[in-house]
Amino acid sequence: MTEPPQTAEPSPPSGAAPAPGPAPGVTADGGPSPQAPAAVRRRAVLAGTAVSVLLILAIVFGSRLLRDFDSALLPYAVATVFLAFGIAYRYTVWISAPGARRLFRQGWRSFFSAANFRRAPTALPRMIATHLGFQKFLGARSHARWAAHQLLFWGCLLAAAITFPLTWGWFTFTSATGSGPGYEMRIWGFEIIGFDALGFLGWLMFHGLDIAAVLVIAGAAYFLWRRMKDRGAITGQRFAYDLVPLIALVVISVTGLLLTFSSIFLHGGGYQFLAVLHMVSVVFTLIYIPFGKFFHIVQRPAAVGMQLFKYTSRRTGEGEDEVLVCRRCHEPIDTAPYVANLRGTMRDLDLGFDEWAEYCPRCKRVLRGTAYLDHVKKGFK
């Protein structure tokens, strides 16, 4: 059975007039129409430039006018500046799309709403923990995938928390005697903690990146194995988009561990070559993040805003649910504000059938089949 033409879609039930579209040059919520691609790119370049300049200033002043900045780490620092530009550029382009822009605004409105905080003060912390920290939504798909993703997530988070401040000169480790074993960790020149390099805390301080590397290798190895064995993953995967990120993480982690192995067991043998290989892999990955699969790391926090918007819009001032029902079968669909937000996005995109958002999926299929029988099939004798 072929798809019926668009003109064969049935009209809404009698008594339910379709919602009028926005006026020319105005979106459904009264704002300006979506900007042209050239205007979006210009704004994205400005945002990227501004964020890069702010990061450079933060590096200069955070390292006490470069007194604590290690020139050997300059390539890493330059890569983080490109990373900041790429993230700001891509994020600006992303939220310029009508759907993303609407959810972005609604998420921030829910976040800053005093009424929402009074009604559900623990909603935001719980959603941050479940959607960002422990990512429970992945557990519904596969416990193994959830565990591997947790290893990748916490490994990368630990590595970033250590590497970025060290690269920018914000963290320094100094020895009062010049040769240890007593060390002081300073942040922006202020002493935070003193520790013995030969103790357990000292071991954790100097091997934090090794721990992160082990976590990342374990998680990435599972996903590489899955992409070689799982038929569903093999069918839709692309080398540059799906495999390169995992390979890059493995190369970074393995070369990082080999640097430690070289310094401890080989007395520095091959250290320079490994250091260059490690630096190249890290710089490539940092530049790749905004324009590849890793960008979902930056997008993920927006999902918390969307879930907060849906959760808070489900509750009225009296604590009752505000759920929109299907116009045909009267079964619950979703929260009324969420459906209204979806209709507004469809109007912004000039789709012309936003009223269908108020029907459940089953009724949409039934009405579409009825329209096919009434307007297409009856024409055949």
Strand content: 5-15%
Order of helices and strands: HHHHHHHEEEHHHHHEEHH
Characterize the largest beta sheet: strand count, sense, and whether it forms a barrel: 3 strands, antiparallel
Rg of Cα set: 27 Å
**Secondary structure tally: strands:** 5
Determine the fraction of residues in helical runs and give it as a percent range.
Answer: 55-70%
Q: State the separation between the terminal residues, measured CA to CA.
A: 16 Å
Structural class: mainly alpha
Query: pLDDT under 50 segments (min length 5)?
Result: 1-32
Rough outline: elongated
Total DSSP helices: 14
- Give the strand order, joined by hyphens, for the main sheet: 1-2-3
- Whole-number mean pLDDT: 81
Record keyword descriptors for this entry.
mainly alpha, three-stranded antiparallel sheet
Describe, in plain words, how this protein is organized in 3D.
The chain is mostly helical. It has helices at 37-62, 74-95, 98-111, 114-119, 123-133, 136-139, 143-168, 200-229, 231-236, 239-265, 271-288, 296-313, 336-348, 361-375; strands spanning 171-174, 182-187, 190-196, 323-325, 332-335. The strands form 2 sheets. The chain has a 3-stranded antiparallel beta sheet with strand order 1-2-3. Strands 4-5 form a two-stranded antiparallel ribbon. Strand 2 (182-187) and strand 3 (190-196) form a beta hairpin. The longest helix has 30 residues, at 200-229.
